[in-house]
Amino acid sequence: MSIVVRHDAPLKSLLHQSRFTGRNGRRGSAVCFRWHSLGSRCTYNNKRLRSTLHHGCGIYRLSINATQGDSGDAFTEIVDEDGSLSSGNNDVLEMTRDELEASRRALDETRARQQQIENEKDRLIEELARAEAKQQEYMATIKHDKDLAIAELEAAKNMFNHQLQESLEQKFALESKLVLAKQDAVELAVQVEKLAELAFQQATSHILEDARMRISAAETSAADAAYQIEEQIRNSTEGTLMAIVEQTKDAIAKSLHVAEKASEHARKSTAASLDGINLFDELSSLQTDNIKLKNSVSNLESELLQAKGETDRLKSELEQAKVQAKASDLRAAAAERAFFEYQESARKKSEQMEEETKAFLEKVKKETAKREKAAHKAFKAELEDIMAAVDAVKETARLKDEAYMRRCAALQRSLNASEASSKIWRQRAEMAESLLLSDTLLGAGDEEVNYLVNGGRIDLLTDEDSQKWKLLADGPRREIPEWMARRIISICPKFPPKKLDVSEAFAVNSVALELPKPDEVWSIAQEKPKEGDTLVEHVIEREIIEKKRKSLERVLQRKTIQWQRTPEQTKLEPGTGTGREIVFQGFNWESWRRKWYTELAPKAADLSQSGITAVWFPPPTESVAPQGYMPSDLYNLNSAYGSEEELKHCIEEMHAQDLLALGDVVLNHRCAQKQSANGVWNIFGGKLAWGPEAIVCDDPNFQGQGNPSSGDIFHAAPNIDHSQEFVRKDIRQWLNWLRNDIGFDGWRLDFVRGFSGGYVKEYIEASNPAFAIGEYWDSLAYEGGNLCYNQDAHRQRIVNWINATGGTSSAFDVTTKGILHSALHNQYWRLIDPQGKPTGVMGWWPSRAVTFLENHDTGSTQGHWPFPRDKLGQGYAYILTHPGTPVVFYDHFYDFGLRDTITELIESRRRAGIHCRSSVKIYHANNEGYVAEIGDSLVVKLGYFDWNPSKENHLEGMWQKFVDKGSDYQVWLRQ
């Protein structure tokens, strides 16, 4: 404490300044300054009198600067509170007892007033601290409540969004199911109508044809018989009559001849008689001739009788023929009546069937409408629940906002009260400070005298603001909590030194900080280098060269037969890859509902890191069906999965991660875009504008004019005639366009049962894919509802198709999939054939076997032949550790939670060096489990069979367990 004192200052003022407090919190003793009148004047010339007072734990040092003057008073001694002398000189003046009492009273009043001031100041400081503490608590409470409200609001929003998403998904699922049900109903109705029409046509045509044939046969036979009989009668009658006429003419001629002879003889005899010739000889000759004539007449009569008999016989045969013809007519009439009756019954049956079909369709429509109404009602109810939940959430948010506003208002009131109390405290502190300073002001002509008292709390400094900040920083005279100290320090900003001159303020080199907006930052991040910059031009040129180099490498890689990788990954044969491919089917049946290419492209890095080497894309062409399997314009790649540019970008992302892109191409059939003059859809459009000559002639629905099909008929679309040279040429050019311009590396061939494998060989040799898979789908053999053990005929048909392609293409191992359905249900003995090899195509031709568990047809939302859900792990453990080329389905990898399981099995396959031709040695295959050694470095066990490599006598080497899934499967690798 520094005190400035004049030698003529009153005692009250001095005593007012004489009480102080030490730094240890204890109050020091009061000090009395005694004045004595001196007869002589003590003269000092700027002489400083210094005395040091030791009292308690405080050291009090008093400096006095006196001036030379005429006053007769001098400060001679310092007296402690109890009246004892601390220091002084020998000339001590006696003070009266009254003056001492008055001084003590004044001192007590001063002490009391000082104590009040100190108490008031301490109280104000404590109130300020409490107010700040309450303010901090209020702020913390409000912040906590705000965080809770925000968290609850976010949770409610998330729950609402989740429920809304679920409701939308359920809505989409219901809509899809409803659409599928409608489609199924329509297709069923169409099929029923077609079947009914075909059955009626077949039955009616068969019966009509049979009746017509019978009637025509009867009519023909009757006509033939009648004609033959009439011909015979006519011939015989004409012959008889002609014979009779001829005979009669002969007889008449002979009679005339005889009569002429007789008349000649008579004339001659007359002449002879006249001449004297003998008449008796002439008479005898005439009699002889007459007898001969009678004999000839009798002969003619007998022949006439015979002719009459023959005529009667022919007449009787004619009557019989007429009777038979009449019977034939009766039978024909009966057959016609039967035909009319059958036609009437068939018509009635068809009408009845049509009525039943209509009733069934009406029933289906009613049930569909009922289901649609129920679904709509359920969806509406759920939507109302969601809206109610939204309203409840909004109401909750509103109430929380109101509570938050009320809390903010209360906090504002408390802050205002705190500010008011702080203001009052500051006013009181300023009043106390002014009171303390009012008695110690220096005169105008006096020089400054500094009195420094160690242990004081207030330093009388020249800077007014610093005193306030000192008081706020130090706080009350007690230990301040750490949080309060941090808070007090935080409200004391440190400002830079003030600029007193305007020119100095403008001459400063500092620049105001102007932060860019978020959109500006984003635009900066997306901004491309400017043209003209030499360095930037070099960078751009380098990037362009790098892109061209990479694209050239990819083109060369696609066009070469052998890949430039490692020696063990050399391509073995065309169309079968390196033998170490692992294919990923990158879509399902519902992928067309989203922009699939943009969703699939970012997954390229993840697939590559997981060990996938090839990605099977959905059909890329424009299609009547959104899934892509009813293609129309082959050169239009803007499909439901995305645009052509998005497809190219997705393929580039796959190539950037060293993944092959396999295109799903449909070569068996193609949907027409125009109708012919007969109203049949068999005119194709687009770049490949084919006509009916490109359709096989035995397609029953589209009036094709080509050659007969070399395979099975696909009835939903026109079947392409691959025997036509122009068709094969166009397909070869299209496949090469997909390879070179779009970027596909291989093919998945759809429905290859529809055309010969020889054409597939031609297409593969022309397009030179890195990998090719054919979908040869055939039914397995069943007996009594159970799968037969022997499936050699089934896998033989698949092998025959691969043989027809010259081994240039692989095929899906449908046999292995069907056997796994039953084998993994404690029938592991199905996994070994009588020769000790794996069943399926894998056991006969593993390098051409593409094993799989599920695809877009068998699984997804179609579910025609789904793999057992609880056996997926075992299924992938089997196909990923065995030879052949395994396929991983999209749903299993990303939706069923099997990503880590599949990745682990792929890693075991990679470490063991298993490829499509690896050897398989089966040790056990029974009801309990399956054990096999694949190659030389991997052993796999399926099922709960108690086995490990140490229990096998014929298994040599040290084995380490790599995967352990208990009773499902276990995998060991050779150390």
**pLDDT < 50 stretches:** 1-93, 439-466, 521-535, 559-572
Biggest sheet features: 8 strands, parallel, barrel
- Report how far apart the termini are: 87 Å
Please list the strands of the largest sheet in the order they lie side by side.
6-7-8-11-12-15-16-17
Work out the number of β strands: 22
- Total DSSP helices: 19
Rounded mean pLDDT score: 76
Helix content: 40-55%
Rg: 62 Å
Class based on secondary structure composition and strand pairing: alpha/beta
Residue share in β-strands: 5-15%
Overall outline: elongated
InterPro entries: A-amylase_bs_C, GH, GH13_cat_dom, Glyco_hydro_b
Domain Glycosyl hydrolase family 13 catalytic: 581-915
Organism: Aristolochia fimbriata (White veined hardy Dutchman's pipe vine)
Pfam families: Alpha-amyl_C2, Alpha-amylase
Please describe what this structure looks like.
- There is one protein chain.
- The model is unreliable at 1-93, 439-466, 521-535 and 559-572 (pLDDT under 50).
- The strands form 6 sheets. This protein has an 8-stranded parallel beta barrel with strand order 6-7-8-11-12-15-16-17.
- The chain has 975 residues and is α/β, with parallel strands linked by helices.
- Helix 2 packs antiparallel against helix 3 and helix 12 (725-742) crosses helix 13 (757-767).
- It is built from 19 helices and 22 strands.
- Helices cover 53% and strands 11% of the residues.
- Residues 581-915 form the Glycosyl hydrolase family 13 catalytic domain.
